[in-house]
Amino acid sequence: MTANEQALLAARPDFAAIARWVTPGARVLDLGCGDGALLRYLWEARQAPGYGVEIDDAEVVACVKNDVNVLQMNLEDGLSVFRDGSFDYVLLSETLQTIHRTEQLMREMLRVGREAIVSFPNFGHWQARLQLLLGRMPVSEELPYAWYETPNVHLCTLTDFEDLCRRLGTRIEERLVLHAGRAVSLLPNLFGSLAVYRCTRG
Amino acid sequence: MPDEDVNAPQHPSGSVGVVTPQKARFDAPLQLRSGATLPAFELAYETYGTLNAARSNAVLVCHALNASHHVAGLYADRPDEVGWWDNLVGPGKPLDTERFFVIGVNNLGGCHGSTGPMSTNPQTGRPWGGDFPVVTVEDWVDAQARLADRLGIDCFAAVMGGSLGAMQALHWALAYPERIRHSLVIASTPRLSAQNIAFNEVARQAITTDPDFHGGHYYDKGVVPTRGLRIARMIGHITYLSDEAMMAKFGRLLRRGVPGFDFDIDFEVESYLRYQGDKFSSYFDANTYLRITKALDYFDPAAEFGGNLSAALARAQAAFLVVSFKSDWRFAPARAREIVRALLDNRRIVSYLELDAPGGHDAFLMEDPRYHAALRAYFDNIER
Fold first, then answer.
1. Which residues, at least 6 apart from A102, have a Cβ–Cβ distance to it below 8 Å?
2. In the predicted model, is pLDDT for residue B2 greater than 50?
């Protein structure tokens, strides 16, 4: 592993989990791909070719620099440019909480992909609960924004997300809950700050 | 290898400096899509930078409606005549002539030096005029391939263009898939809409109904259908700019400060259109204009696949960069996304930029920092 990759995994602990689940050579679609770091990592670590979707100009340019395929589109408009079942994995890495039309996107992910891998900050983490209890909106490493400037519109807890999966008929194949880069098994909805789910159509 | 004058002084700010157009003559007949055959033809072209030993760093820049082979640099005797994509092409520019050997070529049927309606018809010894065949994007690409052969280029690192130029870049990937590694398709569409064709037809009608047109044989009469060409250009210009860009540029400014209650120039935008029309009709050939608009209308790679663009693009092997501009209503982003979708269906390597630039269709010629940063990054990753 290169120093760059180590730094990347330290900054984004969900990437390692995602890479473990992605089989070598699988076709990947990364929604809200940022500068393309995950796609590049998956290509280098798993030889998994893919495309990213990103709306921000600067991030799209960064993707082109990173030599990953990027499509500048708005996820809120759906994924109509992609055919049914055209990907092995559709990734939504720490982007779920910024999406307005969450249900539509969840359905679209499992239309175009065999599996969906979703990671998001857990709003049920004890620090978030404590800050609310003390009368303030939570601000933490996973939720770094003040309430008036946050791009996050749909924050949820592990339990909330699992409820939504049940409602959509989405099957949860695997779940990994993390805090500070380590797996959390005791009371994950309380002690986990980041959750990664692998889902299928069920 | 033909190259610009290496002794020419370097123009400041990353210009390729003084360039000299060249000509290549081809004596083997060229079969055109219309069924006609051109017995022989000449292509005017310019090159910038140096072809490397592996002959693997060539980039072909295809022009759109009114441009030419003069992509970058300037002419020694006409220093004001700067290449039409000079902001993109040059040493240290996004398409860096220190790394790439860049070629601009005037298309067949053109009026800037390549064989076209103003050239002599070998059968009559007089200008072709209205008898010059209608040429298509496919014909242009075939002719460009001959030039590539002549320059010893088996495979282009990239072929790029905006608008009609992008159609050539796309067709290159279909007609010669093994001869192009990257295709840059900017501000384009896989086919014109009825509205696009309608605008072209108004432009053509303006020309062909000009009393000085004489069925295209106006050279013999010593006249030019200036009025028609002028109106054709004015119509074109309206479609190249967005409503927003026009409003920002001209607003409702009155030339004389107050309404004239006559038919002289009142609004600034009228002055602009008249100026553009006058300028264009002074140097551009009406017969060429007619043919180029037809080439636009006919381009439709999906047609021979029952309208299935994905099937049409299955032949392509190149990696693609597709770019559209949100304010471009002539070839709107939705049209570019059709190309992207067809490439995705074929699992081709593709990136797509949809930039929120205000310039309308002409945005592809403008120096938007995000746009140029993306092109620079893309070219930087192209192996030579």
1. A96, A154, A164
2. no
